[in-house]
């Protein structure tokens, strides 16, 4: 039914649990996994003429965000390897994470987007996460929204 599943993460504990559930789902479906971390784009300081010496360059920022992305995606990669699921990891840059998720799913021909109902920026259990909500409204691909019953570690 599904051959390639896009699993997103923002690096939060909730997102890591969701990603592991996504890998289990992929194993049940016999699908490959494309793990995605979307990092914010580089932001220039307000006064570009006066850049503080401690402010990272665009290249330093990109390298740091790729390292962070690799750390966040490594948990998905390890879960996939343990489950015997083929997994590719990808770090992308965009200020609109939801639109980048939809774009990557289209470009990489994913059959399903698997993501959490809430990530780092949710208001507890009050509302569906804003990124998830935007993905649902901008894609024609099926989206499986995973919801944790209780917070990790409780």
- Sheet bearing the most strands, described? 5 strands, parallel
CATH class group: Alpha Beta
For this structure, the CATH topology is Rossmann fold
Q: What is the CATH superfamily? A: HUPs
Strand proportion, as a percent range, falls in 15-25%
Let me know the average pLDDT.
88
What spatial form do the alpha-carbon principal axes imply?
globular
N- to C-terminal distance:
35 Å
Structural class: alpha/beta
What's the CATH architecture name?
Answer: 3-Layer(aba) Sandwich
**Secondary structure: helix percent:** 40-55%
The helix/strand series, from N terminus to C terminus, equals EHEHEHEHE
Count of separate DSSP helical elements: 4
Pick out the low-confidence regions.
Answer: 121-128
Strand line-up across the major sheet: 3-2-1-4-5
Number of domains: 1
Rg from Cα: 16 Å
Which assembly state applies to the chains in this document? single chain
Q: Write down how many β-strands occur, each being a DSSP E stretch of 2 or more residues.
A: 5
How does this model look, in words?
By secondary structure, this protein is α/β, with parallel strands linked by helices. It has one domain (4-146): Rossmann fold (3-Layer(aba) Sandwich). Helix content is 41%, strand content 19%. It has helices at 13-29, 58-83, 97-107, 130-138; strands spanning 4-9, 32-39, 87-93, 112-116, 143-146. β4 (112-116), α4 and β5 form a beta-alpha-beta unit. It is globular and about 55 Å long. Mean pLDDT is 88; it is low at 121-128. This is Universal stress protein. InterPro entries: Rossmann-like_a/b/a_fold, Universal_stress_UspA, UspA. Residues 1-145 form the UspA domain.
């Amino acid at each position: 039914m599904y051959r390639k599943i896009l699993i997103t993460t923002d690096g939060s504990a909730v997102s890591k649990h969701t990603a592991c559930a996504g890998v289990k789902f992929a194993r049940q479906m016999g699908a490959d996994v494309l793990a995605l971390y979307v990092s914010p784009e580089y932001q220039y300081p307000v006064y570009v003429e006066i850049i503080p010496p401690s402010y990272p360059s665009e290249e330093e920022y990109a390298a740091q965000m790729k390292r962070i992305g690799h750390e966040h995606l490594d948990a998905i990669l390890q879960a996939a390897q343990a489950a015997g699921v083929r997994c590719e990891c990808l770090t992308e840059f965009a200020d609109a994470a939801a639109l980048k998720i939809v774009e990557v799913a289209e470009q990489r021909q994913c059959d399903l987007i698997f993501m959490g109902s809430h990530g780092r920026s949710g208001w507890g259990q009050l509302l569906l996460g804003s990124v998830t909500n935007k993905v649902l409204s901008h894609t024609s691909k099926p989206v499986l929204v995973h919801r944790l019953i209780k917070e990790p570690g409780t």
